[in-house]
Amino acid sequence: MDILNHETIVAPATAMGEGGVGIIRLSGTDAEGTLLRFFRPTRPVSRLTSHRLYHGRIYTSDEVFLDEVMAVVMRQPHSYTREDVVEIHCHGGTLVLRRILDLLIDSGLRLARPGEFTLRAFLNGRIDLAEAEGVIDLIRARSESACSVALQQMEGGLSRAIYRFRDGTMNLLAEIEAQVDFPDEDLDFQDQERILQAGRALMSEMDALLATFDSGRVLREGLSILILGRPNVGKSSLLNALLGESRAIVTTVPGTTRDTLEENFVLGGIPLRIVDTAGVRITEDPVEAEGVRRARARIPTADLILLVVDGSLALVEEDHEVLSACLGRNLLLVVNKGDLAQTPLSGGFADLPQVRLSAHTGEGLDVLRDTIVSRFLGNSSGEGRESILLSDRRHREALVRSREALGNFSIAVERQAPVELLSVDLRGALQSLGEITGETTPEAILDVIFSRFCIGK
Ligand SMILES: Nc1nc2c(ncn2[C@@H]2O[C@H](COP(=O)(O)OP(=O)(O)OP(=O)(O)O)[C@@H](O)[C@H]2O)c(=O)[nH]1
Ligand SMILES: [Mg+2]
Hints:
Elements: E1 9-12, E2 19-27, H1 31-38, E3 39-41, E4 53-59, E5 65-74, E6 85-92, H2 94-106, E7 110-111, H3 116-123, H4 129-140, H5 144-154, H6 157-180, H7 189-210, H8 213-221, E8 223-228, H9 235-243, E9 261-267, E10 270-276, H10 286-297, E11 304-310, H11 317-325, E12 331-336, E13 354-356, H12 365-377, H13 393-414, H14 419-437, H15 443-451
Parallel strand pairs: 1-7, 8-10, 8-11, 11-12, 12-13
Antiparallel strand pairs: 1-2, 2-6, 3-4, 4-5, 5-6, 9-10
């Protein structure tokens, strides 16, 4: 990506499809001039006032009428990109949008790349990188809690924490560098203690933020849950009970489910993808065998496996086979059919973490829901969360590196290493923190981050 280009860009800002209104957005020095070439305000004015919506019509240079629209100019720096931005609010039809877009591109504007408006907002210093990433997370969010996490980040919550770490590290660096002027003197004992204490305080704040990553990741990325078990134990019934609708076919015939079946829903603020599978058994039927293969293939990537058994029957060889296929994975035993007389669990099953329920009556489902949520979020559910969470792997890695550099710094201070060496670790810590907020992020990584955005954002 040519990161410092000043071309004026254009893109649809709303999804291309049918809708009440479709918005086309322009950004750059030619944005207003281009609008004025094709837009005729209903009430002629000598100059458009910034941030005011004008009613009018769009005509091509050959006087072809394209649409009745509302248009607004937002002059820099008070705009999303900090450049001159124009929005044309058209009727929301694919062809209407396409014809106006083509007109603007033919007149010399360039179609924006994914995320290019937000990239410009970042490059022009209106938002930092973590805030820009919050924007895309907000658009992609699949649960209320994921929305809250993204909003926090977009509004600078995470950035403020990172800037606090940066300021703390810079203060340490200033102290150390003041010593460089007196190279023959070591840090005296009092200086050393004070610096160590400040370093420790900083590291424990970092640790506290790092500790939020597991919850943050789960809320942002969601979880994949696999329902596994031998035929007829009630896997599809469990899926239906969790969804509250009759999604999967349930019959008394073992081997009913042939393929994997996926559904999304939200539990305690966590976006979940839950997968029902074919009952695991050895079978001659090629369709069912393929289903079993697909079920097994999901085991390595599931965040949680719900291993379902029929509590009314003694366990059989097939149940043990399923268990051994998911050993070492995050596993929860679901003992189903609790409405029938129960048979005690045997073998290794009795010791597994388990929930007893009835997919028929719904008894025990709440316990299952709570167990799933608390396994991933601890006791606090994701709903109504206000505190700042670290949710992005890239941010976490950078913060871990920064924390390590501070750890090395503390050790070096304790060992009374030469002051010149101490500043190396501190600079490393600052470099890593800057990668989160974008000051020191390599261009190639910026490319990857912004290419995840949609066009027009
Ligand atoms: N009594 C009772 N019967 C249940 C319960 N859950 C499921 N069943 C019955 O068990 C049979 C099998 O249920 P399914 O949900 O199709 O089982 P499955 O594990 O998906 O079976 P396959 O798709 O063949 O692997 C059906 O007759 C269900 O009505 C329950 O909680 N109590
Ligand atoms: Mg089934």
